[in-house]
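Risk mitigation, structural track. In case the binding assays with indole-3-glycerol phosphate fail to produce interpretable data, a predicted complex structure has been prepared as a fallback.
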Amino acid sequence: MSDTLSEIVAYKRSQLETKKRKMPLPILEAKAAGQQAPRGFRAALMAVHGRHALIGEIKKASPSKGLIRQDFDVPKIARAYVNGGAACLSVLTEDKWFQGADENLQIARQSMHLPILRKDFLVDAYQITESRALGADAVLLIMAALNSYEARDLEMMARDHGMDVLVEVHDEAELEEALKLKTPLIGINNRDLKTLEVKLETTERLARQVPGDRMVVAESGLSSRSDLDRLKAAGASAFLIGETIMRQEDVGAATKALIG
Ligand SMILES: O=P(O)(O)OC[C@@H](O)[C@@H](O)c1c[nH]c2ccccc12
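Fallback model:
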């Protein structure tokens, strides 16, 4: 376990057995079936015209930065993102490194109308059903944590539950695997999840290799309007932003300032 991603994934896998015992899959399936229908995540991104399509992330802490935001009022943050003009939200549910919680997703969803991406480390089919049972509209699949079979199976399950899939890559080999999936949403993470280093050049380099029928979502390390303009010119059409906005007291104003 030399890098952060492997450590997190190992921890996730170790939690799974307990979770499955506490909440057996059939019960979870029933919960998922009882949820309101998924809101269109991809559709909401595609509906944005004339300004940047932003996915506003609700994130309290991160492995690279520690605590990011002290005053963490989820409904207030969620509604501020709406008022600021975000197209979608992303909610961290990972508890140990990001201080997230499953409840944060449920609370955010009850607080506003935008589609929500469940941001976590999903490596097992159980977690896909769990995401829908929590009310997620979309899930993140991280190619660096999955082989191509796992990615394909998890994607199929997510689609069966009516959720959109954002597949995350950070190099050429992962992009090649991601393009074999059905989802049109290709997230390019500027942060290397193994070393935690951030380079906007990652989006610039990889976006060029994404066919025109896919949609590039630039992720991580975006801190200004000019970063968004720069990556849009490189081919990104949506932007996933957490820390920059989470550090601002006024989330609505910070969102507006970024997307115009
Ligand atoms: O806070 P930032 O640098 O704006 O990044 C947001 C988002 O891209 C980042 O939280 C993220 C991208 N991929 C992930 C996978 C797991 C956990 C977190 C992430």
